[in-house]
Amino acid sequence: MQKRKILKPKPISGFPEYTPEIRRVEMRWIDTIRETFERYGYVNIETPSVEEAETLAAKGGDVDKEIYGLQRLNDDGEDKGARLALHFDLTVPTARYVAQHFNDLTFPFKRYQIQRVWRGERPQEGRFREFLQCDVDVIDQDGISHDFDAEIPLIAMQALNAVGAGPIRFMLNNRKILTGFYQGLGIENAGDVIRVVDKIDKLPAAEIERILTGELGLAADIAKACLALAQIRSTDNRFADEARALGVQNDPFEEGLTELAAVMDRLNASEKGACVAEANLGIARGLDYYTGVVYEAQLIDYPEYSTICAGGRYADLVGAYIKSDLPGVGISIGLTRLFAKLVKEGKISGERASPTDVLIARFPENDVLALDRLASQLRTRGINVEVYHETAKLKNQFRYAERKAIPYLWFAGDPHEVKDLGAGEQSQADPASWLPSRLQG
Amino acid sequence: MQKRKILKPKPISGFPEYTPEIRRVEMRWIDTIRETFERYGYVNIETPSVEEAETLAAKGGDVDKEIYGLQRLNDDGEDKGARLALHFDLTVPTARYVAQHFNDLTFPFKRYQIQRVWRGERPQEGRFREFLQCDVDVIDQDGISHDFDAEIPLIAMQALNAVGAGPIRFMLNNRKILTGFYQGLGIENAGDVIRVVDKIDKLPAAEIERILTGELGLAADIAKACLALAQIRSTDNRFADEARALGVQNDPFEEGLTELAAVMDRLNASEKGACVAEANLGIARGLDYYTGVVYEAQLIDYPEYSTICAGGRYADLVGAYIKSDLPGVGISIGLTRLFAKLVKEGKISGERASPTDVLIARFPENDVLALDRLASQLRTRGINVEVYHETAKLKNQFRYAERKAIPYLWFAGDPHEVKDLGAGEQSQADPASWLPSRLQG
Q: Is residue A5 part of a domain?
């Protein structure tokens, strides 16, 4: 054994990595989410990790300075192509994808996408530089059915229930309620008001009111009305009456209330498991591009923790690429953010890392080719099998199985015998019919 | 409908992207490969897409100038951390991972890893800037069982057979055969000779001989012997006798022949499907770090196409990180390279993109909440269901199902009826027991 200096490898801040035990849980989560999306008939797409830097920067908004550009370490100037950068979400790539493959897609185009995205943020709790997003969107031509306003958050709830992510509050609003209400009050800078009111969960109400009357110059009663609207929340349709009681009347306001009530009705008629649907007229989702229903979800047990799922309805996905508008509704589950929090809080404990059902023991008297054939026969029947990698004392093979939590130890012979290491029982087994409990019935 | 200027989105060269139909096949391939790896008891790990640039550059060798470094587009100089870069393979990240999580792993550590890697290469056929690698390796402490020399290529063969990748030739050699042989001939610059001989499939034999006698200054009979060795190939164990007949005798040479013969015996006793195992004393795998068996696989139908799978045995994975040597055996399937070639050659045709089994038709007389409940009932039973997104004429709903190749159209009512769109037959169905053919038996 050669001795040498040891360099301690260090994790890179903001880039999560797990032991095989935790990774196995994460893989099961991803499989389950994917399965849930497919239960609703959504198709998978994947896009490259990069887009042209120009495309991303044009859409980046406040994430602009967080975009990672690529540059070869020893650039010899040979590469004359456009500057490339890692995508910071899955929306911009999807817009480009839909435009590029427009003629190959069936509309309404129901797609899901589960990929890593990158942001050069300062790492802190709930913020990562590389993270997995699970997006589900429907995109249609010109109009898009309001059915999807309810289906999209419902799919997210089903997926989060299926992985067992625990109690989650989905807060829903409709941008038309806000813009209609502000318009009815004669407010001109509705966008600014939305940005301020969106902080209602982070700042005290009095502070919000101060900003509205101060920086934004609203009259005191107008600011009070804005605040009153933002404080309305209900898990049924009472929100609509409470909002109407504030005295504003106009078409977009009424349309927004009606649309949101329809979404709440449909969600409340559905199985929501550990999720709660709450109409919350205080959430706005800062992004300009939402035009109807908006969603924002948080872990009920960790109300201080950042949003783990968000989305909404937009009037046009693809912007300059296509002649006509392509409106859509979508939601994005921040899987890494959610998963990392539950791991940190001890809500997720690693499973056994090994997928192995059976370890075939190996002794000097065994013919290795015969053990190979036995393993192959079992594998063909869907059983995950390892043949111990050398002849060794039973004790050592036993310890290996134990450390990997392999449930069965197989002794080849005539007859074969299998020891159930959990129950401690050993019995005869026929390789042509024996099944581990994982595969029984 | 708003009219505007259309920007044609363009694909970025070297970054593959598929329509949903082809992506569905790719997903099935990945699932199948993963399943195969787990059949043999290998555990999954994932590492971040980036490592510190220093770590990568130290190991990069000739890919050094192809490494993509990350830099925020509008860097404000705030980020004082180490320079980060995208990994160019999965070996360097695995080495760092094993060192970092050393105490959490069970050895022999059998791991697989399916991730994207990046290389800033000039794109050309078979070369991508972003591509998916499927790696399977066993790493042990100090020694490692020679069992794995055969198991590793066998797993790759099983995986490639399972996805139906078509006839593939696995060429095997052992570096000890080469180094022993050259040593026996009194050649001092064995590494240089290996690099030249490795080109035997690309250059004519006479040209190889010229380089050996010219640039490398070998005597004519020595060069001839090197060439003779490199031309030996057999699908059984005749290679060993032919190699011995060249008259060299020493321990490493003999050890290499014995090890390779054992691997060939084990492979030839196994089910190899559409794969061929060939001992080929002309392949060397340029990388210095292989020390025993080496593998290289190519598509038999496209012999000019680049290697689609390669690997071998190495004496130490982790270098400076750990006190003792961690030897291993591994292989990497270049999934993107392989898949893209088969797509290009028309060997892979897209499936229907949609996972939907049943489209529930929707007419003005239907209560949408009742359709939701029906859909939910079917989904709980594992059926993938869409409810048509608006009330519409049967013709339109029919066309939608047809374009997405959805096999069943469901008419809610009392009784319910289901139309099998393939067979054209319509019959009564009970939502509590009906199954699409995909889920039957």
A: no
Alpha helices in A164-283 (DSSP H): 175-184, 190-197, 205-213, 220-230, 238-244, 251-268
Mutation target vs A (from B22, B30, B40; most A CBs, 10 A cutoff): B40
Strands of A290-299's sheet in order across:
A43-44, A109-118, A130-139, A328-334, A309-314, A290-299, A168-174, A275-280, A233-234
Report the number of distinct structural domains present in chain B.
3
| Mutation choice for B interface testing from A1, A26, A46 by most B CBs within 10 A | A46
- Same-domain pairing of A131 and A247: no
Are B162 and B225 in the same domain? no
pLDDT digits (tens, 9 = 90+) for A360-416: 999 999 999 999 999 999 999 999 999 999 999 999 999 999 999 999 999 999 999
Give domain status of residue A264, yes or no. yes
3-class SS of residue A272: coil
Residues A392, A373: one domain?
Answer: yes
Is B263 inside a domain boundary? yes
**Inter-CA distances, B298 with B166, B170, B171, B202, Å:** 11, 7, 8, 14
Q: Between chains, do B96 and A376 touch, taking CB under 8 Å as contact?
A: no
Q: Model-level pTM greater than 0.80? A: yes
In order of A100, A328, B32, B306, the CA distances from B338 in angstroms are 24, 35, 15, 9
Provide the ipTM.
Answer: 0.95
Identity of the amino acid at A366: N
Contacts of B68 in chain A (CB under 8 A): 70-73
Would residue A231 count as lying in a domain? yes
CB pairs under 8 A between A and B: 280
Alpha-carbon distance of B30 to B35, in angstroms, equals: 9
**Domain-terminating residue out of A279, A300, A321:** A300
CATH number at residue B209: 3.30.930.10
